[in-house]
Amino acid sequence: MRIISLTFLSVFLLICSCKSAPTEAPQKQTNVVIIYTDDLGYGDLSCYGAQGYSTPNLDKMASEGMRFTDFSVSSSICSPSRAGLLTGRYAERWGYENGVFWPYSQDGMPATEVTIADMLKKQGYATGMVGKWHLGHKPEFAPTAQGFNMYYGIPFSNDMWQDPEMPVASHVVFNEGYNLDDFKTKNPKKKFRNKVPLVEGNEVIEWPVNQALLTKKYTYKAKEFIKANKNEPFFLYMAHSMPHIPLYASKDFNGTTERGLFGDVISEIDWSVGEILNTLKVNGLAENTLVIFASDNGPWISKQPNAGSAGGLRDGKFSPYEGGSRVPCIVWQPGFVPKGVVSNAQTSTLDVFPTIANLVQSELPNNLKIDGLNIASVISGDTKIPERDYFLYRGNAIRVGNWKYVKTKKEEQLFNLLTDKEEVKNVIKDYPEKANLLKSKLDSIAVSLQ
Hints:
The protein has 450 residues and is of the alpha/beta class. The protein has eleven helices and 18 strands.
């Protein structure tokens, strides 16, 4: 297995604009599929060291493509992480960072934000989303208002409940003996926790959805979208609800692993990935489709045994440490992404938007600051990488190069991630000037984001 070295041998021009020459890709317009899991930790796939179950399809995807060891999300919590993926921007830029959207939330990601779907739709792409949205469920914030022609999924996390004001389809299916009056119950949180609606377009079509069937439902709908649009360029954003708790697996996977229900859930997600990749291959779309697999944040480690592993990294979801933000990432496109490469390039979900823009030769929005970098050269196998000015973490933390500064309520910390990615040794006393530089940079950036 080849390893891409990450040493900065030369300063590489920041390629954040599509005014630069596009990286060479297949002649046809490149299809894009993003598979995003929920609370999957850095150590939760076989190819990242998981035990007690196997992920053969994801392992094969890695062997046929590129696996990243230093890939981070823009926030270690759900909603701002998803916003960062879709827009290439820190959610702080539109006033949102620390929390998530709830069934009672009246707000969401503003439609003034430009998503990957918005960009590709203008390029003539069919745009579809399957799975968990969690960026505001009111019509003006829903996927259909954010560039997606098709939406099928749950509007927020699977441990939530319904918003009684949501539009209900005339053909809605009610489960567990409930009816429309139950759905319209005011203040439903206590009575209907974990009973989430399934939405198609902007209407509820099933409530409460049988969560044991969600992974299969998402997979079948995603395959249907791919086959329906195989003769035109398409963008599919597939956001799994799992392995966010409560965990559910279908009867075909329930009880099949040594790791218990968590392992069963990951095995089913792995099956789903295999189904998507096989659908692309069978329909002659593999060499013309870029597939990106990642997670929205690290594991919710306090929920053991129903939570994943950060793979030796410090802490997990919610935190500013690597276990909260560094996640598995695999990129696959036969003939474009080199086979069996492990890249330790510092990369991020923020980079997905500008990279796709480069590959499809689309202009980036000129009225919005894009925080990500174009890493098309990295995924095509170039050993040179764009130099990142800084990377922010949820809470008070910043990374510049391999140096990371963290400010908690109790102390200030400095870590060298090159030698200590586990963040065990606080070296702030050894490098006070370095810490002060990063602190000053963090403070100035915080002001600019307000």
